[in-house]
Amino acid sequence: MIHIYKFFLLLFNLPAIIKGAKIGKNSLLAPGYDIIGVNLSRLKIGDNVLIGRNACIGSTFGQGQIIIDDGTNIGRNCQIQSLQKIHIGKKCLISYGVSLIDHDHLLTDPKISPMDGLLTTPKPILINDNCFIGAHSFILKGVTLGEHCVVGANSVVTMSFPKNSIIAGNPAKLIKKI
User: Fold this and answer.
1) How deeply is 60 buried, as exposed, middle or buried, from its count of CB atoms within 10 A (0-12, 13-18, 19+)?
2) C-alpha to C-alpha distance for 158 and 140, rounded to whole angstroms
3) How many Cα atoms sit within 13 Å of 167 on the Cβ side?
4) Which residues are marked as active site?
5) Which terminus of the chain has a smaller tally of CB atoms within 10 A, N or C?
6) Does residue 95 contact residue 71 with C-beta atoms inside 8 Å?
7) CA distances (Å), 134 to each of 129, 156, 168, in order?
8) Comparing C-alpha atoms, which of 156, 155, 158, 153 is closest to residue 135?
9) Phi-psi bin for 67: left (phi > 0), alpha (psi -120 to 50), beta?
10) 65-68 and 99-101 as β-strands: parallel, antiparallel, unpaired?
11) At 56, phi and psi to the nearest 5?
């Protein structure tokens, strides 16, 4: 039975490994993750990590680094796009449909189409150990979440919060400390 499990882990992870991703023991990228046109050579996944179906994880222009530490679980349909660096700590639970993006589009000139515009200067995202991020939330550039932070569903996190914070809203605000 263990051999069958390990076979499926290899089968599902093989395209990412071929594209250069470093994947730890017993970690799984579920089927449907993007591999065409995506640079995975700067993706490092620790041991016992689960990434749900249809995740879009990539290094924008091959420059950004993404690190996902041991024991983290990332739900389906998540977007993790890095132009600089996104680091997710140990044993985090990230629900489905969450987006972590360390850059945005420069949309200040009405004469330039968003398709032709530039990207802003990236700022790293750091999600420390044991955080929970609720469904359909956005974590934007420059955010650091301290250990044991809880982000309510549908939140837009635009600034950093210290450990043991419960935050929610658009933009996210401190609800209480735990």
Assistant:
1) middle
2) 5
3) 30
4) 105
5) N
6) no
7) 15, 11, 9
8) 153
9) beta
10) unpaired
11) -115, 100
Q: Residue holding tokens 């249809």?
A: 54
pLDDT per residue over 144-166, tens digit each? Answer: 999 999 999 999 999 999 999 99
Express each pLDDT in 36-63 by its tens digit: 667 788 999 999 999 999 998 887 777 8
pTM comes to: 0.93
Token pair 């395209």 in the structure block, residue: 15
The type of residue at 38 is V
